[in-house]
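Collaboration report, partner site 2.

Our partner group contributed sequences for two proteins of shared interest, and the home lab folded both. The records are reproduced in the order in which they were received, starting with the first partner submission.
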Amino acid sequence: MMALNIEGLPIEGIDRIQITLNPRLKRYIDYTKKINDYLRVDHCFFYYTRTYLSIQAQRLNPTKTRPITNIRYSIAEAIFDLIKQKVIVLPVILPLSVIFVHLEFFVFNIREIEFYFDFRQWDIQIVSMIGLSNYKGTIYSGDYRSSINRPKRVSRIKIYNKAEALIRENHIRRETITSNPYKQRLEFRLTMYNSPDLSLANLNGSATDVIQRYSPYLATVYYRQFFGKVAVEDFEHPLFGEIQNLAAEGKLRYRGNEIVKDKTHTENTKEKQFFDTLDK
């Protein structure tokens, strides 16, 4: 039987994916609409407007109600939900199947991916803080820079108490939080600014498939940032075990053979025809 974390999800999986929506969709988006069901739409303006869609773990990992999940399909579902909830108000209602088949038209790029691994508190020990940062109880890898020393830079790895974070958020019963043993979270946070090839092409398959695809890169990051400083004793996490085993081989560089190279999004003829048809 698969072990579950405090939120009722597998103890290793994808915590969040943030995509940048195609700028073509900007004029159809109602930014005043509130969204539930683990989706969030944000936008920023810096010379041009970018719209971001964040999809949370509950939509990305297998659960009782979602036993099998293809990540690309989950992204298509999220966009379809925005259309159903009239956050994206298109001239026509597109079927989910059309969005899935033409997903590259809707997704401008993958901005962030977060992989999580939840452990019992005694499974993780900090051996040395050399090269690490402790900010408000969260242990960050050496590439971290807080907003106190601007500009802020996120770390590729961090360890924190997930139970305490959920207690502060106050959307899960405290009894459920305290009774679950998997309170300590180790998290990889890959962004388009700190990691290579966060492309849609690499998100085909389940959360397990995606993590395994990125494991050689995650192992390199782990070896450079945490290996020898953080001790993890555990036999319940096959995906993290693979990352740890690869790191133990002492890989300092990632060769980039396992994941598909990202390409800058440029509008092709089919994409232009697709959106021109919507506008008619």
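Second partner submission, folded after the first:
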Amino acid sequence: MSARLPVVFLVLFTLFMMSETLYANPPRMKAPWPAGLTFRCNQGNFGAFSHNNPLSYYAWDFGLPMGTPVLAVAHGVIHAVGYGQNGYGNYIIVKHHNGSYSIYGHLREMNTSIGKSVEQGEIIAYSDSSGRVTGPHLHFSIINSRGMSLPSQFIDIGVPDEGFYYTSQN
């Protein structure tokens, strides 16, 4: 009977992790830049430079040039807008209907305010190099209410890998 305990724990833990993974991204999430544009994933999940802690394990840095429109990845409500001491510089956080949040960092102009409803593909900001950066890019991740990054994927570009180029359909 005691030999079954580790197996039961493993099964329950796996189910919990699967539910967290399934919960992560909002339904039908698309890349956060305009359709037809192609950009490089400069740093992917578990990146050695700055995606090396639970707050950013599943984040991406996309090489958007300064002034590129940043789009909402899915429908939601603006939860936070500001300048973060966490290195993100100007940032926006959107809360989605499934309880997840999308965070967009290193922005210039932010065309929104807290409580505003946004649709998928709506311009919410423009890319820049605010905060702690080595150059202009967009930091993006899906987080939970505790600020922990969650595994996620886009329906148009999948799970981006560092060093590869991706074309949005948003």
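Feedback sent to the partner group on the second submission included the following. The beta strands are 38-43, 60-62, 69-71, 76-84, 89-95, 101-110, 117-118, 123-127, 138-143, 165-167. DSSP finds one helix and ten strands in the chain.
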